[in-house]
């Protein structure tokens, strides 16, 4: 943003570009004027054709936001953000609300193609290694594990401020699953949105969540009705393309009684010298016996080798295990962003509910990561598990910050936390800041953390077998993070492993 | 927060500021010392820390500090026998030192004299805007003992620094310097009777190759407010073992601030915190590994009963040049009551890559299998529980090995269980 604007021209040439998604596409855009005001909030709401109640909700949040101060407790350091220098709305110019892929601007499809995200269904089938069965044959199969093995993934693609396309909608609808952009959900399913939006992350929650509530432009909406096991993986790809835009997406996932859904999220952005803001809010609601699995591979542009540019990733993610025996699991692989500031959390409200958090955070260059989770035990017999692996290289700072708390009535609350950090090079930092709070004597909390470097013995062992140093490190690191990678859906696991390799390139020597 | 200035002072804040005005003329020292005191009271005027201040996250001093009694010169503190038999006792009665006898190889001075002549001015420092204990103490400190152990001296008898209160306020400092190659055992005894407000700051310098065992034993009455700070700096190959036992007080904060600034330095912290009633006991440690090849281990064990609230915050900072640091920290808590509460924040801040650092924290009830094992052997539940809790704590105490030290500490433990168990 403005702090670095004057130097943009001088640093056009970047020689350390390992970021392979850094290309920029020239697509005709429809933008709101720069800056933030009530008028912009009204503009966004009008663009989206939203009902009056939604506009009021946004304005309420905006007024609240004006009274808030930017938080500064995280271990990150960045110049003050000028919110008047950001475009809060940018959408590709095309017919409003494409109904099929053919109506989508071919340039956008090309972008997703370059990113390797198959929007066209046949490509999805071609994209997986497994022998894929024809679609109609699959439809006959029982909903269950074997369907997953087909590797089909329904995708919602979000380009700057708007969702451009959602695939497999009809087939999902047959199962009763609603998967669409949040704008569409506000129009088509207002009763559900009204009931759940802001019920996990209230508009007054925190500075960036409140900002998001005022200006969110799109995101995904998932509703899995009672007893339904969502027949395929759902996925959203977020792409920031325009200059100076902020991306504010809002995702809401609801799993009714006994439902199951697995959702993946991926993010990329072009290489730019200025910083861009991404402030998302994700809300998950799991009712009795429901299970939500949320996986993220975050690969926003991290800035160049000198720490110029990159995305500010200030995200609020929270899951509410509202029902008894419900389960929410967060898995994240964080390799991108100049600054990451996010704490996917679980509120374990229902009795016997369970929360899980698996995280790999890799930082290199001048990246700053302050990430972790919160496990709030409210119900009886609730359990949670946290596995966090931080890898710091270059000049980066990598912080795990997590909270585990058991309230008075949380009898038999159980938590296990393990956070390990690996340091590569002596210019980086790894930090661990856990908050452990017990108010119930039957609670049982265990926390352990370690920090170390890759031992010379390990490296020697691998290199002695003819593997070059950089690959040896990647191999050891992959072993270090294996516990988390295992939690990812197969297609993502491969991608995540490669990403970690790419992120650590140039960290040796 | 710039809004703080507009917030009205709490009664405790107002009482402190007023007390400063009244005491000013009685406090020793002028010139440089007064400047330090003025700065410190300004810090208090700006407001006591709230939970928004990270280092006070679990001890909202602004809300919790209710008891600021007036200074009371008439009360007389009762003397107590030293913890370890045969110790040389230096006693402070309600914040006032006694005439000092001499020990061979040790220079002893009353701190009031060093404040009066201004020679202590340079050491009168707080370590940041969140150092509320340092600020309160700097503003009001009137006395204490200065102990200087010469290089190479091996003290055969422990030195016991007693800080005895009997209500009212007392603010003391205990600066101790242990010369190169010297060896000493020092007991810091914090006790008394009455609902006093005590602030106490110990400053220890451990010279190269010196070895110190420092025991802090705090058993204030359950109405007292006890704000204490222990600061130490370790030279080359210096060894410091700090043992902290908290077994009393209503509002207690014990800060431990240690810097390993000589290669080969080794620091050990062993803590036993016994919490009962509606006390609030906070032990906060900040440990800096500032040079290569230093090591530390910290083991803190807590037992929480009644409606007590316990806090342990431990931060290990490993500086960028401090390669080969070996640091381990563990905090284990038995939370025995559903009305009790324990919060812990073990932090690692690491800037060097070739280190081995770890921390572990557990909060739990007594293991039912262990209980079953004992009860199956005919031991009733109450005794079985008692045995297990004692064993959990004794493990830390017994590490001190020296019987003359271990025995009196175990006796204190027994006394506590006799009244609270």
Automatic annotation (TrEMBL), chain A:
Occurrences of domain SUF system FeS cluster assembly SufBD core (ranges): 238-480
InterPro entries with a match to the protein in the record: Fe-S_cluster_assembly_SufBD (IPR055346), SUF_FeS_clus_asmbl_SufB (IPR010231), SUF_FeS_clus_asmbl_SufBD_core (IPR000825), SUF_FeS_clus_asmbl_SufBD_sf (IPR037284), SufBD_N (IPR045595)
Domain SUF system FeS cluster assembly SufBD N-terminal: 172-230
PANTHER family for this protein: FES CLUSTER ASSEMBLY PROTEIN SUF, UPF0051 PROTEIN ABCI8, CHLOROPLASTIC-RELATED
Family label: Belongs to the iron-sulfur cluster assembly SufBD family.
The protein, known as: Fe-S cluster assembly protein SufB
Organism this protein belongs to: Aminobacter ciceronei
Higher taxonomy: Bacteria, Pseudomonadati, Pseudomonadota, Alphaproteobacteria, Hyphomicrobiales
UniProtKB/TrEMBL annotation, chain B:
Source organism, top-level taxon: Bacteria
One Pfam assignment: SUFBD_core
InterPro entries xrefs: Fe-S_cluster_assembly_SufBD, SUF_FeS_clus_asmbl_SufBD_core, SUF_FeS_clus_asmbl_SufBD_sf, SUF_FeS_clus_asmbl_SufD
Signal peptide annotation: none
SUF system FeS cluster assembly SufBD core domain mapped to chain residues: 168-392
Protein name as annotated: Fe-S cluster assembly protein SufD
Species of provenance: Aminobacter ciceronei
Organismal lineage: Bacteria, Pseudomonadati, Pseudomonadota, Alphaproteobacteria, Hyphomicrobiales
